[in-house]
Amino acid sequence: MSSVRLVLLLSAGWLVVVAAPARAQDVPLAPDAPLADLPDIGVAWPEIAPEPADPLAAIRSVNAAGETRYNYRITGIDAVDTDLFRQRFNELSTLRANEGEPANAAQIDRRAREDARTLDELLRNEGYFDARIATSVRPEGDRLIVYLEVEPGERYRFAQVRTPGIAVAGTKAETLREAFPIAPQSPVQGDTVVAAQEKLTQTIGREGFPFAKVGEAEITVDHATRTATIEVPVQPGGERRFGRIVARPNRVFDGDHAQDIARFKPGETYDSTLVDDLRRAIVQTSLVSQVRLTPVEGQVPGTVDLDLAMEPAPPRTIAAELGYGTGEGARVEGSWTHRNLFPPEGALTLRGVLGTREQVAAVTFRRNNFHGRDRVLTGQIAATHLVRDAFEANTVSLSGSLERQTNIFFQKTWTWSLGAELLATDERDVIVATGDPRRRTYFIGAVPTSLNYDGSDDLLNPTRGFRLGGRFSPELSLQGDVFGYTRVQLDGSVYKSVNDSLVLAGRARIGSILGAPRDAVAPSRRFYAGGGASVRGYGFQSIGPRDPNNDPIGGRSLAEFSIEARVRAFGNFGVVPFLDAGNIDTSPLPGLSDLRYGAGIGVRYYSNFGPIRVDVGTPINPQRGDPRIAVYVSLGQAF
After folding, report:
1. Alpha helix (H) residue ranges in 31-146
2. Nearest CA to 244 among 310, 303, 292?
3. Residue 261 near residue 284 (C-beta atoms within 8 A)
4. Using CA atoms, how far apart are residues 88 and 90, in angstroms rounded to an integer?
5. Which residues lie below 8 Å from residue 230, measured CB to CB, with a gap of 6+?
6. Which phi and psi (to 5°) does residue 618 adopt?
7. Is the link from the previous residue into 301 a cis peptide, with omega within 30 of 0?
């Protein structure tokens, strides 16, 4: 016996095989024998709708001489009229593309026929292989209505689902079968088939099979029973464990450093999602323009090595920045960075600031991904000159830190930092009792540490969750005598999404200096409040006790509170009414009896890289000399 198979290639990318019954075995025929009747192949093919006797008659009746305008309507597709179905038809429809424009009879007829074929293809993708589509044109007023009248017929369903070869996966076979969610009686639907193939491919890679192959789905349609059989061949290729990362010769870094970045260790079961994660992390170093990670057979049996190939990106960056802030003055900042001067990922930055109230010269060494993902080692030498209302300081500092950072690409729940700092600073302030100027030199050593928890849903624009953070910095100071003190600061914020256009946000900050009186602590190491990241409406560092010259003197304790409503007004723009409060106290415990309040409204533009904010605030209970209005511009929300 032999068989007949008709193979159709559908637009959705399926291979569809229409099966017909076998014909009778061939027998010898005598030259003069009469021909037998042709056998009935037993397949009920879909009927073709008869065309109207003259589909253009309505057009001629409206405008026999030339062109007319038209609209179109589709009937009979309620069973498949989803948003996606409509979108696909609208993108392909020639009737829609020219709707309302003048057209002659031949053009309208051709467009209607093309759209009928488009509808037929889309219906087949949804499992309606016996659809009948008729076109007609009817006059209504001064226009024509082109009708596409659809009879979808019965929806085909899968009778059998086969995944030959999957049993080779052993104990993982059942997991892989469940990853292909098509089952008998499932509709023959193109998007479902594609999604099932993708899910199976992803799952087999996650389950430890780096060399697996998932074949194209072959669908056999039986018109007689209005069912189909789907077969997806699978070649698992053997389960593997991670081996080594082998980097080809390059000017970026080697395979050992790539292993530091990876979230997997040698010997763990292979997982393709972890390989994709490593690929993204390498790109985020900004040291490469292209990266390829190819699984290859490992040197150790049962393992898979990763062949790492990278194309270096330009390693040098020059940056410049102009800015102005109330209380901070105008400033120009420039920097030069070589991001891989000391491989792997050892960057050197030369930075300078020229401003009306600030001058800085700094050399910074920074090593990213230091023996771990997003672990950063930093060392810096800096010379600064700062002029503030509260003090003037000339400082030379040497500092270093090791920290685990978060970023917009890989937001971390927990981050921390450990640091050390040595500085010599010559500072000028005034004697509080008299207002007379004075100058003192301090030598300070500090061991700052921090621990932060981020339970919010977004780094720059959180809409729900909360954040908690703590800073702890024991310090030794030499100014006449050696004495010690500790700076402590706690921060918390919470975010509540009321609806799609409204988010309520609140923030609190408490700080204290323990172990030394205010006057003994260098002015630059005290707490201050006021400004765009503090209490809006007030000048930078202007809140708190003041000297006889009405300049702030800082304090040993800090208390700040903020609430705001983030309203997404229209499109990418929003408005944010806010109320802030804060105070500085000379005692180690913050007082709440003399809070300064600021209120105002802000505007947000929600760009692709985060919200850009402009806040305008005014002090509610100002001190003498406070401004009536203050304006703040920055990237990201206020907190």
Report:
1. 57-62, 83-92, 94-97, 105-125
2. 303
3. no
4. 5
5. 158, 160, 161, 162, 182, 188, 193, 217, 218, 219, 220
6. -140, 140
7. no
Looking at residue 57, what is its pLDDT? 54
Assigned token pair, 274: 């972890």
Say how many C-beta atoms besides its own lie within 10 A of residue 518's C-beta: 21
CB 372 within 8 A of CB 257: no
Residue 460: per-residue pLDDT: 84
d(CA 470, CA 417): 11
Q: Rounded to whole angstroms, how far apart are CA atoms 599 and 622?
A: 11
d(CA 246, CA 80): 51
Return the structure tokens found at 35: 């021909």
Locate all alpha helices (DSSP H) within 568-624, ordered by sequence: none
Average of per-residue pLDDT across 539-555 = 92
Residue with tokens 């293809």, as numbered in its chain: 121
Among 142-156, 316-330, 358-372, the minimum mean pLDDT is found in 316-330
HSE-up of residue 508 (Cα within 13 Å, Cβ side): 8
| Distance separating alpha carbons of residues 487 and 508, to the nearest angstrom | 17
pLDDT at 4: 30
Structure tokens at 617: 């605030």
State the pairing for strand pair 437-446/610-619: unpaired
526: its two tokens: 């005290």
**Distances from the Cα of 35 to the Cα of 28, 31, 215, 385, angstroms:** 12, 10, 45, 109
Mean pLDDT calculated for residue range 501-519: 96
Query: Measured between alpha carbons, how far is 497 from 510 in angstroms, rounded to an integer?
Result: 25
| Residues 350/375, Cβ–Cβ less than 8 Å | no
Please report, for residues 3, 22, 599, the alpha-carbon distance to residue 583 in angstroms, rounded to integers and kept in the order given: 90, 91, 15
Neighbours of 425 (CB within 10 A): 22
**Which residue's structure tokens are 């002015």?**
523
Residue 538 has pLDDT above 60, yes or no: yes
Residue 520 has pLDDT above 80, yes or no: yes
